[in-house]
């Protein structure tokens, strides 16, 4: 019943790969490189896998789980793999199914916690679980109003993000202002106001009897902390845990993970500190970087063989990290490409952003003509506000595209609102807002000023900045439209501009089956393409202008590293000297390319990072009995049958058993059983005695490594067994007693199957 309620399924002996045939344990290891194989065979934690970009980390950890199941070390219903997105969890489940490991749970942190919360809430709290609030923006808006704040619709996402950050870093409303100061966080508005909205939001949830996604983690952790009997049930259910993207865990997620593993569960974590790009959401690489400090006995495996990118792309990626600083940089991995050589990365400087976008679109067109599929091409940029010019450039060439990680430009709320205002001003004709404007661009600025647009970008980050970028793009578009119309001698007014906007919006809504991907660098994490264009790589954009501290600058560098490592073969990096045509060429290419792009001087930083390999914990007990997969000592096949595992050989492989010793052991066991008034198998099973007689131990350590000889039996019977193995009479038996028992008795043949 517990298996059903906690979401497990399927007994071990029903596991089958997709084709239906049984999959042997050793077959799971086929095709893995040495480091991936080390991950797959390190079945008992703690294990830390430091996996560089493109090194096959998902392959390694899914094969590890499948190997554990197929070798009989894991029961699938006792395995839980957690990751950060439903897409990643689904991919993991699919791979495990193909490897014959059905029944393993692969979920996001929130999904796993919610399942436990729903099951245990009635007995821990009573009643039904509060309704889950799918989207908190509306309730945040209500909380802001009740707090006496006037908040624009586009600011709500920033307020919501701040509340989420506070909750995952376990900061209560009263402590939020101090936390902002302590962490150097740049709040989107006055911290005291945000704290007030945060407190009101929490009260509004209580009033309505609802919880949000962060509450799911908080409440589950609290129940496990406060109710030991519930915690024990969960820990008994999941004995083997794997955490993917461990560099992105938050303090709240780590708190829950600590509860899951407190009962001694085997833990395997996988991550890459060089891909930490979500610290603004509360994620921290500290748990990954300090894993060896918390678990001195841990096995650490480094994956550095890059199967995704060409040597040319990998060389640039390594060069970026070689110049990095901070703790994450000290643990960087130096990738080694496993692919054939490809073209060198292309570095291009343009006079302005429209020219950069048009040239990028033509480069995409050229790749398409060469046979590269549109879905294998991506244009990546720092902020969503940069997308519009690339959307238009691709549309002008009839190239379909898809915008990932954000709404299409003309579907964004601020853009829809702006177009509606502009349409209203065009219909009104003599509008007071536009009366003093000298030209079309001035009229657009005047209209958008009523929605908070200013000529100078805001200092903050997040939605406020992206909203400004969207409105600024409309102003720039007005400037270009006006210049083109006047050059052609055509009318140029607000009405004509709105008509142009409508036409562009309609063109972008065409279906895109094979579309080029347009995405922010954050949205590109976890994806890859044959060809990648990294656009807008200028100072002030990357690193972003509001990145002030050394830590913030280093995260911006890691963001570029993530972008570079998305490319398999073709990589183009570009920047513009000015925003608009004819503008002052005051921009500089990003500092992160200094020493790497041609003509930028000698590269800085160290040239070596971490290498691949396996490191075993310094405090791992030398005599600790291995509980991993058991190999046949004759043919080296992985053993799955219980008796074969005890004997450490296949049933059909030749036996090396000492028959005389085996008989002495059986006689001794019969005497011990008679003394205790218990069945013979209580002392040792036949299979254990056969294992002892086949692999005769000469020391306590060797005896302890034989399956069936636990700590208690080793203490109770170890000396006697070793004496028998040495051909001696155990000290606790006299020769007369031994002879009498031999001649008078039953040898206890009713042994229990192993």
UniProtKB/TrEMBL annotation:
Residues 30-310 form the UvrD-like helicase ATP-binding domain. It comes from the Bacteria. CDD domains: DEXQc_UvrD (cd17932), SF1_C_UvrD (cd18807). InterPro entries: DExx_box_DNA_helicase_dom_sf (IPR013986), DNA_helicase_UvrD-like_C (IPR014017), DNA_helicase_UvrD/REP (IPR000212), HRDC-like_sf (IPR010997), HRDC_dom (IPR002121), HRDC_dom_sf (IPR044876), P-loop_NTPase (IPR027417), UvrD-like_ATP-bd (IPR014016). Residues 729-738 have a biased composition (Acidic residues). ATP binds at residues 51-58. Residues 311-569 form the UvrD-like helicase C-terminal domain. It is an enzyme of class 5 (isomerase). Gene3D superfamilies: 1.10.10.160, HRDC domain, P-loop containing nucleotide triphosphate hydrolases. Keywords: ATP-binding, Helicase, Hydrolase, Isomerase, Nucleotide-binding. Its EC number is 5.6.2.4. GO terms for molecular function: helicase activity. It catalyses: Couples ATP hydrolysis with the unwinding of duplex DNA by translocating in the 3'-5' direction; ATP + H2O = ADP + phosphate + H(+). Residues 601-615 have a biased composition (Gly residues). Belongs to the helicase family. UvrD subfamily. This is DNA 3'-5' helicase. It comes from Kitasatospora cystarginea.
